[in-house]
Amino acid sequence: MTKVTYHGHSVVQFEHDGVKGIFDPFITGNELTDLKVEDVKVDYILLTHAHNDHVGDTVEIAKNNDATVIAPVELAGYLETQGLNTVGMNIGGEKSFDSIKVKFVQAFHSSSFTDDDGNVHYGGMPTGIILTLGDKKIYHVGDTAIFSDLKLINTLNGEIDVAFVPIGDHFTMGINDAIHATDELIQPRVVVPVHYNTFPPIEQDPEKFKQALKTECQILKPGEAVTFK
Fold this sequence. Notes:
Elements: E1 2-6, E2 12-16, E3 19-23, E4 44-46, H1 52-55, H2 58-65, E5 68-72, H3 73-80, E6 85-89, E7 94-97, E8 100-106, E9 112-114, E10 120-122, E11 127-133, E12 136-140, H4 149-157, E13 162-166, H5 175-186, E14 190-194, H6 206-212, E15 216-217
Parallel strand pairs: 3-4, 4-5, 5-6, 12-13, 13-14, 14-15
Antiparallel strand pairs: 1-2, 2-3, 7-8, 8-11, 9-10, 11-12
């Protein structure tokens, strides 16, 4: 069984052949999510970059589940100092974990983590992540601006079944750029808009995105799963 579920902002859970994981588990402080930290049961936590609204509740979830955190190497190094089991990877790298395969690819953004004392920790390069679950490829684009090598990523990695693409603008691509990135560059079978409406600066109408696309778009409410073709 392969199941991929959206939980608000950029939070995506997945399950494949008994392996459970979550991308960017920003739960505490995320008014859009349907999750509770204590209820999250995962084997792996995948982080696209170090910003607090993506690292989120990683430390608590990892400790609750004895989960492995897979993240850009600098971010993984910081989280290891917090007592977590981590695997640091870098852009271009691919590695299998049980029945899943994780590949880190380029994104254009920034990446740092601010701790409770206000100290800022460099988080390495921001990334997107291509997750292979059996015969399905999931592309979490992460927080990124549009860039032409999204097309190269598509060419080198084969058809993407589902892409999670930010549309919020201000910090990432807005709707117009996300339309071009989806239809002309990434060209997934299905796109799911993410990273919008969590905070006032990123308020957007996902229907405007959907109506302008050639690609099939599934606008998911928190807790809804992707429907695969």
